[in-house]
Amino acid sequence: MKKHLLSAADLDSGDITRILDTAAHLAKVTDRAIKKVPTLRGRTVCNLFFEDSTRTRISFELAAKRLSADVINFTAKGSSVSKGESLKDTAITLEAMGVDAIVIRHGASGAPWRLAEWVDAVVINAGDGTHEHPTQALLDLYTMRQRFPTLAGLRVAIVGDVLHSRVARSNVLALGTMGAEVTLVAPPTLLPARVETWGAGISYDLDAVLPKQDVVMLLRMQLERQRAGFFPSLREYARLYGLDARRLEAMPEHAIVMHPGPMNRGVEIAADVADSIERSVIADQVANGISVRMALLYLLLGGPAVGDPPVPAVVEGAAL
Amino acid sequence: MSPLGQGSGPGPAGPSSPSSRSHRPAGPSSRSGPAGPSNSSGPAAGPGPVLLRGGRLVDPAGGHDATADVLVRGGAVAAVGTGLEAGDAELVDCDGLVVSPGFVDLHVHLREPGREDAETIETGSRAAALGGYTAVCPMPNTDPVADNAGVVEMVAARGREVGLVDVFPVGAVTLGQRGGELAELGTMAHSAARVDCFSDDGRPIRDARLLRLALEYAQAFDAVIADHAEDPSLTDGAQMHEGEVSAILGLQGWPAAAEEMVVARDLLLAELTGGRLHLCHLSTAGSVALVRAAKARGVLVTAEAAPHHFTLTDEAARCFDPVYKVNPPLRSKADVEAIRDGLADGTIDAIATDHAPHAREDKEVEWATAPPGMLGLETALALTITELVEPGYLRLGQAVERLTAGPARCRRLPGHGGPVVPGSPANLTVFDPTAAWTVAAPALASRARNTPYHGRQVRGRVVHTLLRGTFTVRGGKAGW
Question: Closest approach of chain A CAs to the CA of B365, in angstroms?
Answer without folding.
Answer: 7
